[in-house]
Structures are given as structure tokens and as C-alpha cells.
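Supplementary Methods S3. Complex input for the fe (ii) ion-bound model.
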Amino acid sequence: MSDPVRFLNTFAQTLSVMTLYPEGHPSRERVIDAAFEDLDALYAGGQLPLFTFLEGEVVYGRQPLRDLRGWEWSARLAECGVGRLEFERRMTRDEFEGFLQEIQVRLTHASAGTSAQRQMRDLGVRLGAVGLDLEAVAVTPSDPAAVTGLREEVDTLHWMQREVLDGRAIPMLEAEAVVRSLTLAMHADSGMLLPLLQLKEFDQYTTTHSLNVSVLAMALAEALALSPREVRAMGVSGLLHDVGKTRIPLAVLTKPGKLSDEERLMMNRHPSDGARMILQSDADLELAAVVAYEHHIMLDGGGYPAMHYERGCAFGSRLVHVCDVYDALSTRRPYREAWPQDKTLAYLDERAGTEFDPFLVQAFSRLMREGAARVHRLDATGTPPAHGQQSPGGGRV
Ligand SMILES: [Fe+2]
Ligand SMILES: [Fe+2]
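Predicted complex, serialized as C-alpha cells:
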């Protein structure tokens, strides 16, 4: 019988028994067998087992497990950094035992090394903290070193955009290098999520926006416990989502006021242009191309480009879409002030289920509220910005 509560109880019991008996002891073997069987039964339920351990609550898939409200193991697991447990494939009995040993190591030494985490990945188990470790990404907005640290990335991205503008391929190695250094900045001890940066040059708006979306996408991906590789893939997708805008004349991008029909058509082509440019530059960047193509498509199918048949957008596109709109609305434009965080989050929330994926809005909201004091986006204050789609709330992205 597929029963997540039963599995977790056996799982916890197994971890306790394992501390009492050495490897090979019949009691230990028996209880591991039982947990393995219970896990196996979960696969039979048709979905890959996914547990999230929140404060005093356990969620299976998206279903809170009432019976386990206040379960002490939830807090214990969360405390040692296991906020989420996702079994991506069936394990062998030996692999399962190895996995239990790794959890045990984590429980006894609060933080397991990266090699242990890598081993987990090899086992097809994904685990991680829910939410960003905000202590580790605290921001010191006034820290000039932090700002100087990103200046190089801003310049590189700016240079990349000029390359594309001159008709050359997107410099993918540089894009990946920018994303790698953004992740390093996010995780540096004295680090930052996003420093406050004043950019005066108007054509750097898209640069700033792309860096912001890249970091926000990575922060959200990380909060959802995606693997470091997937997090970086989201970073590259965020960085390149608006690359199609380099084809739009600056006069149109920076035009204050309403766009003409012709200019609007030009603007609405940036997703498909961007996707084509990415694929022509590097066929391996399929995800970034898909995200570039889909980032203005709403959950209910609205937005652009128009879809020829009804289908859901890729997870990455839905994720970047949330970060994209958040950054656009939080930025000052000639026709409106920057929206405060509460207003922007309320906007996302209102449209969760129609424009945005509600699960992602919820996770994003939690991430931003938790980090409110420390998280700062790059700020292009005083910058006449580029224009994009007019969204229903008056934000252009
Ligand atoms: Fe866009
Ligand atoms: Fe955008």
C-alpha cells in the first residue's frame, strides 16, 4: 500500500535503530528492509516520492500530511539541512542503505560535506534546504567592494549584447562565466544576493534587468532545492531571456510613452528572435531557448507569442516569468515609480493561477519576504529604461 506517513515513520525508526546497531546486525537489517519496502510501495503509487519538511509540517508532493503535524523528525531533518527529500528513481536495497547512512552522517554532524551531497545525487536522491541560506547571502548594499565585484559582470554582459547587436553569435562561454561568478557572489561568506548598483547609462537597463532576473531565477531554483547544475541552467536562461531585444532599435527600446502598432509588433518578436539566436549560438542551450521563447506566455495561455495549440510552458519559463515581472515592476520607469516589494508581491499573488504558476509565486514570495531586509536587486536608478510588453498592471517586462 502506498503510504507516505507509514514510510516516514519507518524511515525515522530506521535512523534511530541504525545508531544502536552496527552494520549487518539482524535488527538493523530488518528495519532497513521494512523502510525499503515502504519506499518501494510509494513508487507504486505512480509518483516520484517528494517530501518537504517545513516548520512543524510535512508535505508529500503538494499534500500536507496532517498525521505528521508537529512530527519531531521534521524539525530534526530540517535542522541538518534536509528540508526536502526527492527520490528521482528507484534505488537498490544497497543504495538505500547508503542513502540512510548519509542522512545519519548529516544528523550527527549538522553539515555533511559536498562529497556526501554528490553521492546523494548519484543515488538519484535530491535533498536540500528549503529557502535560501540567507545568512550566507547577506547583502551589504553600501559595500563598494560588492559593487565593484559585479562591475565586471555588468561590463561583460554589456559587451555580449553589443556582440549580438553586431550580428555575431551569443558568446556562450562568457554567459556561463557570468552566471558562475554570480553564483559565487551569492554564496560568498561576506557575499550578497544582489548588491545595490547605480547605473547611469540608459542602455544598461536591459543588462541590469538580465543580471537581476538571472540571480532571482537562481535564488528561486535554489530555494526549490534544484541541483547546482539546474540552478546554473536557470541562471543562464534568466541572463539570456531578453537577448532578442538586442534586435530592437534603441529608439524603440527607449521610447517614452505608447508604442505604435508596428513598434509593438517589433517588441513582441523578441521572444522568438531570442530563442533563434540562442539555438544558432549553441544547440546545447535548449532550455535557455525555450525560456526565451516562452517567458511572456501566461499560465492560462495568454501573452505572446500566440500558441497554436494549448500546452503548458516549461518549468524554467514559468520560473523566469515570475522573476522577470518582479524585477520589471520593482524598477523605476519614466511613467511610474518603482513598486515597493509588498505591492509587487501582491500583484504576483493576484495573478497566481492565471498569469503565473501559483506554486512558484508562493515559493518566490516566501523567498523575498524572508530575505526582505537583505535582498536588493540591482538598481538602475535614474535610467531611462527599455520598454517591453505592457502587462495588465502597467508593468513592462
Ligand atoms: Fe522579455
Ligand atoms: Fe525581461
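The chain has a mean pLDDT of 75. The longest strand covers residues 50-54.
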